[in-house]
Every structure is written in structure tokens, then in C-alpha cells.
Amino acid sequence: MDESLETVLVEFDDDRGVGTLTMNRPDALNALNGQLRDDIVAGLEALEEETEDREGVALRAVVLEGAGEKAFCAGADIGGFSDESAGDSSARSHYDVIRNFPAPVIAKIDGYCLGGGLETALACDFRLASEGSTFGFPEVNLGILPGAGGVQYVSKLAGPAVAKELAMTGEHISAERAGEEGIVNHVYADDEFDDEVDAFVTDLAGQAPLAIQAIKKSADMAVHSGLEEGLAYDRTLFEGLLQTEDHAEGAAAFAEDREPEFEGK
Ligand code: CAA
Does the keyword Nuclease apply (predicted)? Predict the structure, then answer.
């Protein structure tokens, strides 16, 4: 599969089960206009459609990246700034679709990651950044706040003081600082970035996919549930996974001292 939407390139690597969405408005630093938001959703749907009739779980991970040399995404498109672009409140916003997508979504960040672009990355399950990337919430310069939960996310990941600093000053921070604050998972040297991300994604895609999906749900639940409720939820997920062929395969592979082959069944 190799599909082009107006502003997003969609690829699917059959061997690894990895989809890639490339936000493709490099001349505007991949700023989010309505079309790009819609195309991210359409791209994720296209990946699901491509893989839905296959056995087990064929779509293991999705990488979201930005085209061009300069940016992952420089936020909402200021030229077309409107109610719609100042924080998407529709039921199927690309933020919600990424967050609720069954497979993990990895933000591959190389360059500016600002405003709604940072919020898009925060809706993903992982943020992997090149060392030259920069992060920030410039919304305050426009007299608004990050409208898609940026302050909430960063408060949870790095604490409210860091969230306030980013959102109240509008200053950019380095990838190194974003890594130290827990806003990104890993920061890689620029010349090793592609290979490191590839290795991370390949490992993730090789794990038992039903377990990965359950872990995504569990971690997301932990953010808004009490511990008792979360423990009960995990117990249900665990009991379901014990019944899967992947669990039997993992146990057999361990006993036979070989690599497991998971199918998502
Ligand atoms: N919207 C529309 N176009 C943008 C853009 C944006 N957010 N960011 C950059 N561009 C465009 C520029 O207008 C420029 O276009 P032209 O070549 O046609 O003039 C092109 O991308 C390259 O940008 P610069 O020349 O400005 O590049 P630079 O390297 O000098 O600066 C930058 C890069 C610091 C990211 C600067 O472009 C900038 O500050 N951009 C605005 C970032 C911003 O404020 N984002 C937040 C928007 S609000 C938001 O995101 C809220 C939300 O979703 C809820």
C-alpha cells in the first residue's frame, strides 16, 4: 500500500506491520489546517481498512512524521486560523482518533514541534525526537492557550510547573530538556535518528500485538482512574490475554529457547 491523500502520505510495510503517515505541508512547516487534520484521520482509517481482513493483528504500529527538513509540525495553521483550528472540538478530532487508535502511534519528531503539533505528538503513545528538535506552546503569543489538552498532558508528564513555563512563556525548549522532563521518550543524535527510530518501531511491532493493545488501554486508564479501579481493569485485561494463542506461543518459545512469532490471535 502506498497512498497519497492531499496532505498526508500513507505507507504500509507489510513485513513489519508498520504504517507510516507523513504530514506533507513542508512549505508551511506541516502546520495543521483542516485538510491535514482530516487527512491524518483518513490515513489512520486507510491503514485499518488495508489490514482488517487479514488474520490476527496485521497493523502493529504507526509512525507519524513530518515532511521536509525543518518541522514535525509548527502547530495550527495561523493563516487559516478559525474556531475549527483553535482546538478541535469535533467528536472525531485527529487527537482523539490517535489517542484511541488500537495500535501504538509513534511521533517521529525531527525539527519544530509546536502548539497543536506538540499536542498531536502528545496524543501519540511515544515521542521519539532528534537532538535538533525544539518544543513549545507559542499559543500565549496569540492570546490563547493550547486548545487540545497540551497543558493537561505536560502537567501529567512533567508536572504543572513545567506546563506553566512552556504555555505561559511561549519559549521553545530543546529536545534534551524535553527528554529530561519526560515530555519525549528518547532523544537521538541527528545522524542516528532514522536508524534508532526504525529499531524502536521494529521491536515494538514484533511484540505480541494484543498485549500491546491492552497495555495502551491500561496506561491510558491509569491517567484518569483511581488505583483500585485500574487494578481491577488490568486483571480483566490479563485474564483475556491468558486465553490468547500469542500467550501460548510466548510460553512455548520461552520453553524451546527460540524467538516467538506473534500473530495477534
Ligand atoms: N501556520 C501557518 N504557516 C506557518 C506556521 C503556522 N503555524 N508556521 C510556519 N509557517 C510558515 C511560515 O509562514 C513560512 O511560510 P512562507 O515561507 O510562505 O513565508 C514557512 O512556514 C516557514 O516558516 P518561517 O519562515 O517562519 O521559518 P523560521 O525557521 O524562520 O521559523 C518558526 C520557524 C519558529 C516555527 C516560525 O515559523 C513560527 O513561529 N511559526 C508559528 C508557530 C506557532 O505559533 N504555532 C502555534 C500555532 S497555534 C496552535 O497550534 C494552537 C492549536 O492548535 C490549538
Answer: no
Is residue 106 a contact partner of residue 63, using CB atoms and an 8 Å limit?
A: yes
The two beta strands, 173-174 and 134-136, are: antiparallel
Active site residue 76: yes
| CB distance 263 to 253 below 8 Å | no
Nearest CA to ligand 1 atom 36: 74
Domains of the chain: 2-205 (3.90.226.10), 209-255 (1.10.12)
Calculate how far, in angstroms, residue 39's C-alpha sits from the geometric centre of ligand 1.
20
Closest residue by Cα to atom 3, ligand 1, is 28
Does 119 participate in catalysis according to the annotation?
Answer: yes
Tell me the Cα Rg of the chain: 19
Spatial contact of 120 and 98, defined as CB atoms under 8 Å apart: yes
Q: 56: alpha, beta or left, given left = phi > 0 and alpha = psi -120 to 50?
A: left
Q: What is the pLDDT along the chain (265 residues), one digit of tens a residue?
A: 777 899 999 999 999 999 999 999 999 999 999 999 999 999 999 999 998 888 889 999 999 999 999 999 999 998 876 545 444 455 589 999 999 999 999 999 999 999 999 999 999 999 999 999 999 999 999 999 999 999 999 999 999 999 999 999 999 999 999 999 999 999 999 999 999 999 999 999 999 999 999 999 999 999 888 999 989 999 999 999 999 999 999 999 999 999 999 999 9
DSSP-assigned beta bridge partners for residue 106: 63, 126
